[in-house]
């Protein structure tokens, strides 16, 4: 059972940063020392560095907001959203005064992943038979105590499938600016948990679960829905992020921290893997965020309607390509971060009509990974309803360990080997497995969440000094993982230490400057063949040559070391510190 901690995370602030009409852009800026900011007047900051204030005027700064003043990760408390005429302002601050402005990041611009064909009302719900929903519903139809969160755009609340008990919470439901964007959120919500057994429209996957709907697309929305006890949250949006996964992890610190927060808080995040780009060879092989980040189930597409070796090569059962043999047109994302495949072509679903002033529904033949993801989210809701003690990793493990692996060996899918995840979603098999293993599922050692118990540190000597002649060496202690392990050390703004290898599990410290603060976000991956485990810990060590040194190692309030969790209190200082 998840323990609720009332941590004052300032939710949704990123999404409410105003977009100014005079070509202003938003940047996220890390300012570790509050003394750097001497005052803020009408959204314009004054810094303690005189020359920096010249840049404030030059780049026409018109907005300055502290995004997470009470965030439980200390470095996030120093993040500010700043509106200016050009992102070059943040580059100039970092280049000229790296100690005061060590890090900046540009927010992602969400893109919808679905397109609506002209043949409205053509789609059907045969894809639900393909993934085995009738068998799943025989075991669980969901429960009103299980809440599914949807971060998207406008939701048509006139639709009967989203009325009555169905929606527990609705926030910021503003009509979008573009007609093609109008029905996206309605469709996603309807597939995940639309009203069913009501003689109306189409069935939803987790149809007795309730919905928490937020008409904004951002990772801090996902974190805030986790605070409201959502068992699973859905993000059918994102942005193409290129082919360099290391670069992606190092430039999405804030998004990754929000996703880690939701995961450690007991919420599974599911995201659409991306829709590629028609006519662009190789484009679909790149990564997509937030789907490709840690602690997210990334869902790509598979066909469902037509038999293999039949009269058509379109929407063939088990085929990743929209048209068999065509890897360029209508080919959706496939990469090493994809976790599972689900139907994504011509899906019967509900939507809203922007041309209809009453905003009533239209039947839709929806296509896109936007609509594959909520199928997985809905199945996660059914599993949680069946066994509320199950952790996010265990939800992922059950869904992936019961997937249809046969599709991975289909001839047309072999070119995507290693990039289609565990295989095809099988909802009925997943629910049957969970039902048959209820007594042991939550405490099954094979599915226990991996945890970085701590870091062994062999010396307090800062590199470059000779008090004991020992080079500092970091050795993470890992519980519940399958060796061999791989690691990633990402420096947090304020870090003053250098590691010999940021991809080594046990690196050495080769240099330290200034205050000699080692401040890293450590991520460890195991070799679990079903659903790779991921563990995070923030490491903060004050390197010193004296007899005293602070060792601060921070994970989370809900560390999942012992499922169900039993941590009831934490150090009031938010860190585990030994002197």
Automatic annotation (TrEMBL):
<dbReference type="InterPro" id="IPR022398">
    <property type="entry name" value="Peptidase_S8_His-AS"/>
</dbReference>
<keyword id="KW-0732">Signal</keyword>
<keyword id="KW-0720">Serine protease</keyword>
<comment type="similarity">
    <text>Belongs to the peptidase S8 family.</text>
</comment>
<feature type="active site" description="Charge relay system">
    <location>
        <position position="152"/>
    </location>
</feature>
<feature type="active site" description="Charge relay system">
    <location>
        <position position="184"/>
    </location>
</feature>
<dbReference type="GO" id="GO:0006508">
    <property type="term" value="P:proteolysis"/>
</dbReference>
<dbReference type="InterPro" id="IPR023828">
    <property type="entry name" value="Peptidase_S8_Ser-AS"/>
</dbReference>
<feature type="domain" description="Peptidase S8/S53">
    <location>
        <begin position="144"/>
        <end position="406"/>
    </location>
</feature>
<dbReference type="InterPro" id="IPR036852">
    <property type="entry name" value="Peptidase_S8/S53_dom_sf"/>
</dbReference>
<keyword id="KW-0645">Protease</keyword>
<dbReference type="InterPro" id="IPR015500">
    <property type="entry name" value="Peptidase_S8_subtilisin-rel"/>
</dbReference>
<dbReference type="Pfam" id="PF00082">
    <property type="entry name" value="Peptidase_S8"/>
</dbReference>
<dbReference type="InterPro" id="IPR050131">
    <property type="entry name" value="Peptidase_S8_subtilisin-like"/>
</dbReference>
<feature type="signal peptide">
    <location>
        <begin position="1"/>
        <end position="23"/>
    </location>
</feature>
<dbReference type="InterPro" id="IPR000209">
    <property type="entry name" value="Peptidase_S8/S53_dom"/>
</dbReference>
<dbReference type="GO" id="GO:0004252">
    <property type="term" value="F:serine-type endopeptidase activity"/>
</dbReference>
<feature type="active site" description="Charge relay system">
    <location>
        <position position="370"/>
    </location>
</feature>
<protein>
    <submittedName>
        <fullName>S8 family serine peptidase</fullName>
    </submittedName>
</protein>
<keyword id="KW-0378">Hydrolase</keyword>
């Amino acid at each position: 059972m998840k323990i609720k901690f009332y941590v004052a995370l300032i939710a949704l602030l990123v999404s409410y940063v105003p977009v100014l009409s005079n070509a202003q852009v938003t940047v996220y800026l890390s300012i570790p020392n509050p003394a750097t900011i001497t005052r803020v007047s009408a959204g314009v900051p004054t810094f303690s560095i005189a020359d920096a204030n010249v840049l404030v005027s030059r780049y026409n700064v018109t907005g300055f907001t502290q995004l997470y003043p009470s965030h439980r990760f200390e470095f996030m408390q120093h993040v500010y959203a700043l509106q200016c005429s050009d992102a070059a302002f943040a580059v100039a601050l970092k280049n000229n005064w790296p100690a005061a402005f060590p890090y900046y990041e540009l927010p992602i611009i969400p893109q919808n992943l679905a397109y609506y064909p002209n043949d409205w009302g053509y789609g059907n719900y045969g894809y639900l038979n393909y993934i085995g929903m009738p068998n799943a519903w025989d075991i669980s139809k969901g429960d009103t105590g299980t809440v599914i969160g949807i971060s998207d755009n406008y939701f048509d609340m006139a639709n009967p499938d989203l009325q009555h008990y169905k929606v527990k919470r609705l926030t910021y439901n503003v009509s979008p600016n573009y007609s093609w964007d109008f029905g996206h959120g309605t469709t996603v919500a309807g597939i995940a948990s639309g009203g069913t057994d009501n003689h109306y429209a189409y069935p939803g996957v987790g149809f007795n679960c309730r919905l928490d709907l937020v008409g904004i697309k951002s990772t801090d929305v996902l974190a805030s829905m986790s605070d409201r006890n959502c068992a699973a949250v859905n993000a059918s949006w994102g942005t193409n992020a290129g082919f360099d996964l290391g670069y992606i992890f190092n430039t999405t610190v804030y998004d990754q921290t929000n996703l880690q927060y939701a995961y450690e808080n007991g919420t599974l995040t599911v995201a659409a893997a991306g829709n590629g780009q028609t006519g662009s060879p190789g484009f679909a092989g790149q990564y997509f965020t937030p789907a490709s980040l840690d602690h997210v189930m990334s869902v790509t597409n598979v066909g469902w309607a037509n038999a293999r070796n039949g009269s058509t090569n379109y929407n063939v059962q088990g085929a990743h390509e929209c048209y068999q043999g065509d890897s360029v047109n209508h080919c959706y994302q496939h990469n090493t971060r994809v976790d599972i495949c689900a139907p994504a072509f011509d899906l019967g679903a509900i939507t809203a009509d922007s041309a209809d002033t009453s905003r009533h529904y239209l039947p839709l033949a929806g296509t896109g990974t936007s609509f594959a993801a909520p199928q997985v989210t809905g199945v996660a809701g059914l599993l949680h309803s069946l066994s509320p003690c199950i952790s996010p990793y265990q939800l992922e493990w059950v869904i992936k360990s019961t997937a249809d692996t046969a599709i991975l060996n289909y001839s047309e899918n072999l070119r995507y080997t290693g990039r289609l995840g565990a295989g095809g979603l099988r909802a009925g098999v997943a629910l049957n497995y969970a039902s048959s293993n209820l007594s042991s599922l939550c405490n099954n050692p094979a599915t226990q969440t991996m945890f970085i118990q701590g870091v062994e540190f062999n010396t307090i000597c800062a590199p470059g000094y000779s008090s004991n002649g020992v080079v500092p060496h970091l050795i993470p202690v890992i519980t519940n993982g399958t060796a061999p392990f791989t690691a990633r050390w990402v420096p947090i703004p304020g870090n003053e230490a250098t590691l010999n290898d940021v991809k080594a599990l046990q690196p050495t410290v080769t240099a330290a400057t200034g205050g000699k603060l080692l401040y890293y976000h450590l991520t460890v991956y195991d070799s679990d063949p079903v659903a790779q485990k991921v563990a995070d810990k923030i490491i903060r060590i004050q390197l010193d040559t004296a007899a005293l040194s602070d060792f601060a190692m921070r994970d989370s309030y809900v560390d999942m070391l012992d499922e169900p969790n039993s941590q009831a209190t934490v150090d009031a200082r938010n860190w585990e510190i030994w002197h």
